[in-house]
Amino acid sequence: MNDEIEQDVEDNEIPSELDSLRARATQLGIEYRHNTGVTKLRNLVNKALTPEEDDEEEVVVTAKVAKAPLSKSQAIAAIRKEASKLVRIRITCMNPNKKNWEGEIFSVGSAKLGTFKKYVPFDAPDGWHVPNIIFDMIKERKCSVFYTSTAPSGAKTRKSKLVPEFSVDVLPPLTPEEIRNLARQQALVSDE
After folding, report:
1. Whose CA is closest to 133, among 119, 120, 117, 112?
2. Which pLDDT belongs to residue 67?
């Protein structure tokens, strides 16, 4: 008897909760990955169905000028523009393995933004301009530093710890006068 019931259930193909949630999410225009679990998908659908009421958000929205929604390519262009803004920095390398290096080539990229590549000298007295995306990566970089630790029993062991690889000083942007002087210097060098 149970075999007949199970067979009827398989023949009628009752959709699973995951299938139902996927269909609902597609109807609501929610983007999700193919391997998203039931709980996360349920939360996404519930969040889309119950808008959050926040007085601060309403104030911000009314204070801003209404803008047309950006297309996908416009949004990517805006993100790329923000990532490529130049920041003037001076970096000092704290990695003991790179103590003799004069600088390093940094490369950051993604499928949507492309690749940003820049050589940055260490301890440049006037600083160096780098794209914002590279600046963010430099701040995040860590390196392992090894040290010797003595246990209470007197045994010495080598341990490591992660420390920031670079010390970064953010410098103010160049003034118009500094830009003119730099242009003159570069013009003299290129004429030679």
Report:
1. 117
2. 59
Q: What sign for the dihedral angle of Cα 82, 115, 75, 57?
A: negative
User: For residue 13, what is the DSSP state?
Assistant: T
How is residue 71 annotated by DSSP? P
Amino acid identity of 19?
D
Tokens for 10, please give them.
């398989």
Question: Which stretches in the chain have pLDDT values below 50?
Answer: 1-12, 53-66
Tokens at 7, concatenated:
């067979």
Distances (CA, A) of 142 to 20, 49, 145: 44, 42, 10
Please check whether residues 83 and 150 belong to one and the same domain: yes
The whole-number pLDDT of residue 39 equals 85
> Are 144 and 93 within one domain?
yes
Residue ranges making up the domain that contains 38: 15-51
Question: Are 108 and 151 part of one and the same domain?
Answer: yes
